[in-house]
Design a protein that fits this description.
2 domains, 332 residues, Dihydrodipicolinate Reductase, domain 2, alpha/beta, 6-stranded mixed β-sheet, homodimer, Rossmann fold, globular
């Protein structure tokens, strides 16, 4: 199987490293970063590309772009791991639509296009008879999409509840454990590299809301958008609230919940008993899927990280290779 | 897809009910209990069979046996859900081998044959080009086999840790929460229907050890048997031990663990911090899979129950239908 990798950030480099380290029968025939690209239908040297990127900041030829890769390279699967733009989904959206249009499978960690244009992307993939997979968009290393699709096949999903943002969970964990104020815990999260300089996207609950939209569109029939989500962040939480929770053997977590039958699509701080499966520590993520037959199934794992996200992407790649390779309509 | 169901206990009835309730495109062409059977290549009436079983104790014709179903009925998948015999694996083992020999897929919840004769069963299935699936043997509704196979595809599994016996977990939960003695908690488990009259198989750790063998054979290359597992049950635990654990913000759980690189295959009570993901309450099961890329992924869910086990079996059936139906070598 031949893949083209767009994006040479932490996720893209992690994917390339794992393809290099593991003997998976995957050949990389093109890579691109935001300013250069490298195309070789016989397969590029991953070591050389990673070294070039580390040394010069460019992975390849500055006269080539990511769109050149999408249009001209010889690949079966496009791996779209460029930075997320939650407003427009671009340039990832155009990369994905162009690859699908050409009858290529797509695997992505990019929340922008998947949360904004899911119906359009899914329809085009179906029309072209190819797969678009996005396990890495939600819950990092947690294979929640595989769980919904295969493990719980035949079940009706009644609700999904999740701790989907590691930054918020770290802040809440530290506020509860050490009695820190929100500001102190946020500062610590920044020092640890868990929060960005502008933490708005995380602490206002937008990031988990985007992930909730992706989850809901995966298991619900009715399409939803970010505008449908009622969002409350954690930035106004006081440590008094956490102390009160503790007195009741509870704590507070930022929970994203989708309950289609009750019209609920919400991200908000919630009081949970300390023994609740969603009460996970630090930057962990956790997702509970409530179903008609299996009851409640909870998944816990790392919500971010270069190799962890690569794990989700490689799971998607192998799924396509094992089950859909023969459905690929054309080979270049 | 046509299925034959062997076993009309709680699991078999649950599977039949779910096939009846859900429009899955599955036709039941034969059923058998321990003393009768019913075969109809055009599909039997599930309602009538369940009613007959409830009224008379027989699901069909007393002159027919389960082996008649295996040999003569028209089915694509054999669902083997007769009671487990952990010593011989029979009669399920013969049912499964005969169906595979005939080129039929097999789905089972039966721990006996899968824990005792895994290599033989897997080799025969491979030779005949059919699937043998056993999600329901471990962790009830938790789709751990799907997780190992698909969700974590590409990962190397370094270790598996699990709370695999709901009876023991209930007893330990009650001892910790209420300061009950082992005997008091066992009595309560019996009254709730969670423990059998002879609880040896559960409380001595044999049941979780059997499940550990199935898990280890699924993800390890080197086959293991029950004799390879070092087993300590919970029947000698005192509530002093649980009190001491509590003083350290810990509790005790019966943990099954397989760490192939260190040669560890063990079931034993273990001290865990209260915030540890494997510290689940009551009859819940939990499994942590430690991998090279995804890190630790924990799954929590109901470890038993008629509909919960049916969920695992139906997940396996749909997997076969979606991905392996076309590989079926012959249709009757």
């Amino acid at each position: 199987m031949r893949v083209a990798v767009l994006g040479m950030g932490s996720v893209g480099r992690g994917v390339l490293q794992m393809i290099e380290e593991k003997d998976l029968g995957i050949s990389v025939t093109a890579v691109a970063d935001s300013r250069s690209a490298l195309i070789d239908k016989d397969g590029i040297s991953i070591d050389e590309v990673l070294e070039a990127k580390a040394k010069s900041g460019f992975c390849g030829d500055r006269s080539l772009t990511a769109m050149d890769v999408v249009k001209k390279a010889a690949y079966d699967v496009l791996i779209e791991v460029t930075p997320t733009n939650a407003d427009t989904g671009e340039p990832a959206l155009t990369h994905i639509l162009t690859a699908l249009e050409k009858g290529r499978h797509v695997v992505t960690s990019n929340k922008g296009p998947i949360s904004r244009e899911f119906s359009r992307i899914r329809s085009l993939a179906a029309a072209r008879g190819v797969q678009v997979r996005y396990e890495a968009t939600v819950g990092g290393a947690i294979p929640v999409m595989h769980m919904l699709e295969h493990g719980l096949a035949g079940n009706r999903v009644l609700a999904v509840f999740g701790v989907l943002n590691g930054t918020c969970n770290f802040i809440l964990t530290r506020m509860a454990a050490e009695g820190l104020t929100y500001e102190q815990a946020l500062l610590e999260a920044r020092e640890m590299g868990y929060a960005e300089a502008d933490p708005t996207y995380d602490v206002k609950g937008i990031d988990p809301a985007v992930k909730l939209v992706i989850l809901a569109n995966t298991f619900c029939r009715k399409p939803v958008t970010l505008e449908d989500v009622e969002i409350t962040g954690i930035d106004l939480l006081t440590n008094d609230a956490l102390r009160l929770a503790e007195e009741q053997h509870c704590t507070i977590r930022l929970i994203a919940e989708a309950i289609p039958d009750r019209g609920i699509l919400r991200v908000a701080p919630r009081l949970l008993p300390l023994s609740h499966p969603l009460v996970v520590e630090g930057t962990l993520n956790a997702i509970t899927i409530e179903t008609d037959m299996a009851g409640e199934i909870t998944l816990i794992g790392k919500g971010a990280g270069s190799v962890e996200t690569a794990s989700a992407i490689i799971g998607d790649l192998l799924y396509i290779r094992n089950f859909h390779a023969e459905r690929h309509p054309k080979k270049t």
